[in-house]
Amino acid sequence: MAACLRPLFLAIISLLMISSLTRSSEGAGIAVYWGQNGNEVSLEGACRSGYYDYVNIAFLVSFGSGQTPELNLAGHCIPSPCTFLSSEIEVCQSLGIKVLLSLGGGSPGTGRGPILASPEDARNVAAYLWNNYLGGQSSSRPLGDAILDGIDFDIELGSNLYWDDLARALSGYSTPERKVYLSAAPQCPIPDHYLDTAIKTGLFDYVWVQFYNNPPCQYTSGDPSKLFASWDQWAPYPGVNKLFLGLPADPQAAYSGGYIPPEVLISQILPVVQSYPNYGGVMLWSTFYDQNYSRAIRPYVNGDPLTYTTKSVKKSHAVA
């Protein structure tokens, strides 16, 4: 009997392995923000850690409406340009990591926030980003000759107008040879004040929702119900392609809560969110705070097909 069952057992294991590999190829992984603390690991060091699949260089804090574009990378390079990062970006990309430039941020910094004055202004900003950070040409590229993979929208200040126009203009630069990837980092309350219209274009490859600093829709100690209810709303939301769970990597990384201990994330949260077909992974703020968090959760972000079956996950979600 055992000899007869062995081929069947091997076939099942093979299918489970294929399922796991397929999930990984669909892009489930860890995204992180880098650039807002001069004491954090270098960009190359973050990529070589093996924990991240996407790195957002943060932030281009002001642009548009006649403003001189300002790249603020805290203590890494003041002022820009930061052309030494070009070789580090290329190392990250050689490791299969997508590197994006993040627009905006949640701190006022030295500017008045990004403001787009009109659809034409949005198209001009897209041209600036294309020529200075993406596949175009400029004599003054702030990050050097490296070509970034795309643009991240983390708009939390300034105007809430014309971000959809910017997304369309940037998407228009994609070619069959080189895609311009777009991501968005809205707050978890729906609709997001700044990015709702842009997200609904459906042009964003990744939406990493900030489930922190937002008590109505974040995890609180021992109670994931608000987080689950918000995830239920975001998963089918118009324009959301790949949905990521945005979290602080340390309690100190969030001023209004939302931190989830890694053991709780692994045992209670990931089994639920992974059951949704557009689950994309986890986003962390930020490399400075991420001392051991990504290392702890990395093996579980893609899900274990032996443990996280759709049936058992949905049952546990119903109980919660």
Automatic annotation (TrEMBL):
Signal peptide (UniProt feature, chain positions): 1-24
Source species taxonomy: Eukaryota, Viridiplantae, Streptophyta, Embryophyta, Tracheophyta
Cellular compartments annotated: Secreted
Secreted keyword on record: yes
Name by which UniProt lists this protein: chitinase
An individual GO BP term: polysaccharide catabolic process
Role noted for this protein: This protein functions as a defense against chitin containing fungal pathogens.
Keyword Signal: yes
Entry-linked Gene3D superfamilies: Glycosidases
EC class (word): hydrolase
PROSITE patterns xref list: GH18_1, GH18_2
PANTHER family: ACIDIC ENDOCHITINASE, ENDOCHITINASE
Top-rank taxon: Eukaryota
Stretches assigned to the GH18 domain: 28-304
Family classification: Belongs to the glycosyl hydrolase 18 family. Chitinase class II subfamily.
